[in-house]
Amino acid sequence: MDKEIRIEEYNPNWSKQFENEKAKLKEMLSDKVISIEHIGSTSVEGLGAKPILDIAIGVNDFEVVNEFIEPLKQIGYEFVYHKEFPERRFFRKGKWRAGTHHLHFYQFEGEHWNDQILFRNYLRSNPDVSKEYHQLKVNLAEKFRFDRVSYTENKASFIHNVLQKAKKEEQ
């Protein structure tokens, strides 16, 4: 069974934790990585979140990610293959369904990379939308306390709508 979904109040420590992790990752992954970004709810000041750091890592070529499996294992990251997400490579630090850090490798400046950054930046610059997203997550966490899949699926239309709005405003 999944661990209970808890939305915690925003913690300013999350950005410090990200900076520490980014420094370690940069050193380890060297010049094969183009960019390392803090994404997800923990990256938006004031937004409550599950206390999991989401980190996007931009690469030119997914082949290079295979070279990272062993070194990342040394600092506690496990590669998790997801055939349903061919657009990314995923690593988890912490227990199954109770990770503390998630690494998402994306094609740098590809559609999925851009969507992650755009969604984060839109929430950062639109506090009302951020508050709305927070409330949605609190409600879903109550409704699907031990069902992470349903929790995630039920956020999808909100995220999609925000991305559509953000893309329109970008033009």
Explain this structure.
It is a single chain. The protein is of the alpha+beta class and 171 residues long. The protein has one domain (13-170): Beta Polymerase, domain 2 (2-Layer Sandwich). The protein contains six helices and five strands; from the N terminus they run αββαβββαααα. It has helices spanning 13-29, 69-74, 111-125, 127-143, 148-153, 156-170, and strands at 35-39, 53-59, 77-80, 88-95, 98-107. The chain has a five-stranded mixed β-sheet, with helices on both faces. Strand 3 (77-80) and strand 4 (88-95) form a beta hairpin. Helix 3 packs across helix 4 and helix 3 crosses helix 6. The longest helix has 17 residues, at 13-29.
Radius of gyration: 16 Å
Number of domains: 1
Q: Counting H and I runs of at least 4 residues, what is the number of helices?
A: 6
Instruction: Describe the sheet with the most strands.
Output: 5 strands, mixed
Give the class-level CATH name. Alpha Beta
**Strand sequence of the main sheet, in spatial order?**
1-2-5-4-3
Share in helix: 40-55%
Distance between the termini: 44 Å
Specify the overall morphology: globular
Succession of helices and strands: HEEHEEEHHHH
CATH architecture: 2-Layer Sandwich
- By helix and strand content, what is the structural category? alpha+beta
